[in-house]
TrEMBL record:
Organism: Streptomyces glaucosporus
YlxR domain sequence ranges: 13-77
Listed InterPro entries: YlxR (IPR037465), YlxR-like_sf (IPR035931), YlxR_dom (IPR007393)
Signal peptide stretch: none
Cited Pfam families: YlxR
Protein name listed in UniProt: YlxR family protein
Domain of life of the native organism: Bacteria
Length: 92
């Protein structure tokens, strides 16, 4: 045996909400479109992307910490309403 493994490398990204590293496929890509944070489920929209776990907790943390402004290098406040509607809320 040559010592090589057959496991493929999988890209990892950091969630801007909780700051944990996860597989890229487990995270939701978010892009900035005209001052709005838009979920990019297919990963094909142009521009800088920020990655986020698709959970309400991570979305709330990212909004509270102003993580999207830092990730997109954008001044001022960003509209996150569309993103918050796209992430399902847990019903008790």
């Amino acid at each position: 045996m040559s010592g090589r493994t057959r496991a493929r490398a999988r890209p990892e990204r950091t969630c801007v909400g909780c700051r944990e590293r996860s597989d890229k496929s487990a995270l939701l890509r978010v892009v900035l479109v005209e001052g709005r944070c838009v979920p990019d489920r297919r990963g094909t929209l142009p521009g800088r992307g920020a990655y986020l776990h698709p959970t309400p907790t991570c979305v709330d943390l990212a909004v509270r910490r102003r993580a999207f402004q830092r990730a997109f290098r954008a001044p001022g406040t960003l509209d996150t309403a569309e993103l918050q509607q796209a992430v399902p809320r847990a019903t008790p």
